[in-house]
Amino acid sequence: MALSTSAMRAEYSAYLCNKNDAATIIFLGRTPVRVLGLHVEAWSAAEAVLLAHGYGQASNVGSYNCRKISGSSRYSLHAYRCAVDVDAPQNWLQGRGSTMDWSRAKLTREQVRHVEKIRLNNGEQAFRNGYVFRNPDPMHFQISASRAAFVSGVNWVTVDGTAPPPPPPTGGTTMFCEYKDGMTGGNTTPERMEVVKSWQTKLIALGQDTGGVDGKYGDKSKNAIIAVVPGSNGLQIAGVESGSIDVALGLLGPGAKLHQHDEFALAVHAHEVTVSGSLKGTTD
């Protein structure tokens, strides 16, 4: 059962018009697309479904915007980082009270239906599309499940047209991490602290002790990453940037892209991932 827009506002009230758990992704070839870190894996699944079913790259994608719904005193879910608009010119808002006319949209009903089939591991529906609104709005995809549901992760079996991620290895885990350019200490920037907070939130949900969600990358956070990274047998990270850690933590699903400015060689094998490169001057 998908949460209504009103229920979503209550569930995600802590994220209204602020940077709590803020994350930036590439979606259908467009960036920056601003969402919640908690939802990054789900947006990756939605992108994988749309690409698998022939949508292709988008000409524009709208995301976070601290605004109210036009003609209303209520905030749009864009203000909570819980909604994305895909190709507004082609998938435009249709008239008040009108019946959805798919012949006027680039998106097809089947493509939207496949996105709405995506489920989280607790069974909740991950997305709703705005074609069901009183004013049909097919460009609009919004999150439709609780925070707890997203902590359980995406059920990749429900992601039509894509293969589920491989299971983690049964062997031991070894990992070496060297963090450069101010991930710790006095050079830590507010942006990097937000990235670290998103890691800490995920790690705590996985039962690890990070010493809190404070944005400070210390020994507890590092050891928590080492403990939970799936498929990390032989994983070596040197000068890691946010997108690469997200991949290592499993926050991004199959087919997910690194951030636009990541310049890493990424080789993925059945039970081995090697990430190498140097930290750039900024992070998302």
Structure summary:
The protein has helices spanning 5-11, 40-52, 109-116, 147-151, 190-205, 219-228, 242-249; strands at residues 22-27, 30-36, 61-62, 83-86, 119-120, 127-130, 137-143, 154-155, 174-178, 233-238, 265-268, 273-276.
Task: Summarize the structure in words.
- The protein has 284 residues and is an alpha+beta fold.
- It has 2 domains: 154 residues; 103 residues, no CATH class.
- 24% of the residues lie in helices and 19% in strands.
- The protein is built from 7 helices and 12 strands.
- It has a 4-stranded antiparallel sheet, with helices on one face. Strands 9-10-12-11 form a 4-stranded mixed sheet, with no helix packed on it. The chain has a two-stranded antiparallel ribbon with strand order 1-2.
- Helix 2 runs antiparallel to helix 3 and helix 5 packs parallel to helix 7.
- The longest helix has 16 residues.
- It is globular.
Give the SSE layout.
Blueprint (H helix, E strand, L loop, with lengths): L4 H7 L10 E6 L2 E7 L3 H13 L8 E2 L20 E4 L22 H8 L2 E2 L6 E4 L6 E7 L3 H5 L2 E2 L18 E5 L11 H16 L13 H10 L4 E6 L3 H8 L15 E4 L4 E4 L8
Parallel strand pairs: 9-10, 10-12
Antiparallel strand pairs: 1-2, 3-4, 4-7, 5-8, 6-7, 11-12
Helix pairs in contact: 2-3, 5-7
Mean pLDDT: 73
Counted up, domains total: 2
Kindly report the spatial arrangement of strands forming the biggest sheet. 3-4-7-6
Q: Can you write the helix and strand succession as a string?
A: HEEHEEHEEEHEEHHEHEE
Query: pLDDT below 50 for ≥5 consecutive residues: which ranges?
Result: 167-187, 230-244, 251-284
Question: What structural class do helix, strand and pairing data support?
Answer: alpha+beta
Please estimate the helix content: 10-25%
Number of helices: 7
Largest sheet, in brief, is:
4 strands, antiparallel
Number of strands: 12
* Rg over CA atoms: 19 Å
Compute the separation of the termini in Å: 33 Å
Share in β-strands: 15-25%
Shape: globular
